[in-house]
Every structure is written in structure tokens, then in C-alpha cells.
Amino acid sequence: MANLAITQKLIDFLQASPTPFHAVQSMVVQLEAAGFKPLDEGDTWTFSPGGKYYVVRNGSSLIAYVHGDNPVKDGIHMVGAHTDSPCLKVKPNPEINSQGYYQLGVEVYGGVLLAPWFDRDLSLAGRVNYLDKQGERRAALVNFVRPIATIPSLAIHLDREVNKSRSINPQTDIPPVLAQLAGPDTKPDFRSLLAEQLVAEGCDDLAQVLDYELSFFDTQPAANLGLNQEFFVGARLDNLLSCFVGLEALLASEPGQSQLLICNDHEEVGSMSACGAQGPMLRQFLERLLPDSDARNRAIDRSMMISADNAHGIHPNYADKHDQNHGPLLNKGPVIKVNANQRYASNSETSAYFRHLCQQLNVPVQAFVVRSDMACGSTIGPITAAEIGLRTLDVGMPTWGMHSIRETAGTTDMVDLIKVLRAHFSAH
């Protein structure tokens, strides 16, 4: 039987986090409730033993840090994840009037599995930058919450070969439909719609919408699934599930050891940004934490990161897509992800550390290696290892439907990984 209390907490987190901006906001609420203090990157920082801190960059990436007794001597135990998920983002000039229907042009973000986006109840959320009534630039989060759009499928009667050979053109086939207009000559105004929604959400000082970063999302809530509720289904499990698990482990960890959780944006598009894993965010944090380069390098030598991202659980209908000896099963334990070409950062030393943790906690552990005749994805793990010089391990929970609008994971795996990451944070 699923641990319904923890899965309900995850459901609430996913529901409140339709975009990376909202996910970081949700995590900040939990961190502040647990006594973490914000760090402003424009201020001077000071750290005290036992102190709890967090810093946000771009509103979409976050570092949470607990200052232990001696980070130089003991190192820093880290967990990394990412806040972004494949999705459809609204273009700058998105308005389309086709046959009197109001549509929005969208850009594909990341490796989206497009077919499941059809015939879903979609809403829109993200960040809006605007001028207030005093002429100052401001930013606000927006979330329409209710279903406002859909991408209707073409009926099978108009494409009899659809189940054999239909391809999806991201430019022409996926602009969502928002409304029916008065006629084919009506010119929709998306920024006016956005301004109305901002005002409805309490943005009273709005004068002009300047720009935005908005994504469509599925309004169907996440849920437990299965005869014994052994599965968990929802949007953005890759990789908000790991953000949630990492935060739960951090908040439950024992004091004394220096602990760090980093949740980067832009992993799905290569991580190359100011707040991505290939950017300087973690390095700059460590430089400010330990300004002396010798002390910092000694701390890094004694530190380790567990990069938590999803793993491909073996699909019962497509078992041949996996290596015959490396098909992780849902609810059979977290997965160590291995790739000889360094698409994952795991090596025998870091894998042994994780296996030993699992062994001590009586948690089963699995391994994933992609078929030798298939390409392998990657994570923030190898990037962080290369940028920081940090021992790193890639792990994940086995899932089905990765990069779909609705993904599936095992509820037991979530509880087990929280247990292991908590032990990693707390270990001396």
C-alpha cells in the first residue's frame, strides 16, 4: 500500500508547481517554514555553524544549504536535481486567428513527447515582467489554473493511416486553441488577456506587460494509481519528483554535517545558462562560502554529490528496448545510472558508496545501462562533476513515459530514495 501521506504532499507540490518559477517558490515556502534564511546575491554573506540558508537565481534555480561543524574537514554532502521539464512555451508574438479560432504559437522546450499533449485540458503559467504605475519594472508569477486551452486531435476519419504513420509537426500541428473569435478578421491580443489575469490575481499596480516566460501545462492533478496504489502518476515527475525527494531528505536530515541541495533550471536544454548546471551558480556559491581557494579545494575533495534524476523503468510492452540485464522495475529500489562514455557521472567509487548506504538501510538498489546500440541521455551529474571537480553519482527512480505530459513512478521507490538521501545528508 502506498504511503498516502507522503504522496499527497507530492501531489500538492506538483499542483502548486506548474513551472520552474512556481516550483522554486513552493520550495522556498517550505524552507522558510523550517528556519532557512534567504541570501541575496547582491549582499555580503556570513555563515554560522548550524545556520540554514537558501539562495535563488532567476527565480527558477535554488540552493539550500545547512552550515555544518566543519565543511573543510568533513566536506559537503550534496544532492542535485533540476526544476525544468519538457513543455510548450508561448512565443513572443503568439496570436493566431485560424478559421475564427484563437490559438497561440508555441515553441517546444526540451525533448517533448508530443503525442500525449493532444486532447488534454491545458492551462498556462509562468513569469511576467511588467511596468507598474510608477514606471518601475516588476515581475510576478501568473497561473490561470483552470483549463483554458486544448490541442484537438485530427479525427481518424480524416487520416485513416493515423495509427500507422502520423508524424507531428511542432510548427503547424500543436498551437493550442483558446477560444472562438467573432470572426476571421478579429485580432486577438494576448498581452491584454495576460494583464487581465494578473489583475485578477492581485497585481494592482500593473501598467503595462513588457515580456513573459509562459508554459502550457496539464490541469489534471497527479494521483495514486493501481489496484494497490503502488504507482504514482502526474506531470513533471522529471524532475520535480527528485526536487521534492531531495528537499524532504534535507529537511529531515540530522545536524552537524554540511548539507547542500541544488535544483538547477535548464537541464532539459543542456544546462548552459547563468542558473543551469553548466553555469557558475554552484561554483560561485562555494567561492563565497569558502573564499580561501586552498580551503575550498580541500572541502571539495571531501565532498560528494548525488545527482537525482529519473531512470527508464522497463516497460512491459517494450522490454526489448532495455539491455537484458539492466531493466529497472518500479518499486524495486532506486537506480544507479551508469554510462561508459560519461553521460552519467557514476563510477565504481561513488556507486559503491550508494550501494553501501542502501545496504545499511535495507533498501534494494538497481542499475541502469542503456543498450549498446542506443544513444544515452544525460543529467546535471557529469556537468557538475566537470565544473566543480566533485565526486558525483547519478541515481534516479524508475519511471515510465519519461518526457510525456503524464509520467509514472513507484510510490515505494520515492519513500526509499528519501530514506537514502537523508542518510547521505546526515552521514559523517
TrEMBL record:
<keyword id="KW-0479">Metal-binding</keyword>
<dbReference type="InterPro" id="IPR023358">
    <property type="entry name" value="Peptidase_M18_dom2"/>
</dbReference>
<protein>
    <recommendedName>
        <fullName>M18 family aminopeptidase</fullName>
        <ecNumber>3.4.11.-</ecNumber>
    </recommendedName>
</protein>
<keyword id="KW-0645">Protease</keyword>
<keyword id="KW-0862">Zinc</keyword>
<dbReference type="GO" id="GO:0008237">
    <property type="term" value="F:metallopeptidase activity"/>
</dbReference>
<keyword id="KW-0482">Metalloprotease</keyword>
<dbReference type="Pfam" id="PF02127">
    <property type="entry name" value="Peptidase_M18"/>
</dbReference>
<dbReference type="InterPro" id="IPR001948">
    <property type="entry name" value="Peptidase_M18"/>
</dbReference>
<dbReference type="GO" id="GO:0005737">
    <property type="term" value="C:cytoplasm"/>
</dbReference>
<keyword id="KW-0378">Hydrolase</keyword>
<dbReference type="GO" id="GO:0006508">
    <property type="term" value="P:proteolysis"/>
</dbReference>
<dbReference type="GO" id="GO:0004177">
    <property type="term" value="F:aminopeptidase activity"/>
</dbReference>
<comment type="similarity">
    <text>Belongs to the peptidase M18 family.</text>
</comment>
<dbReference type="GO" id="GO:0008270">
    <property type="term" value="F:zinc ion binding"/>
</dbReference>
<keyword id="KW-0031">Aminopeptidase</keyword>
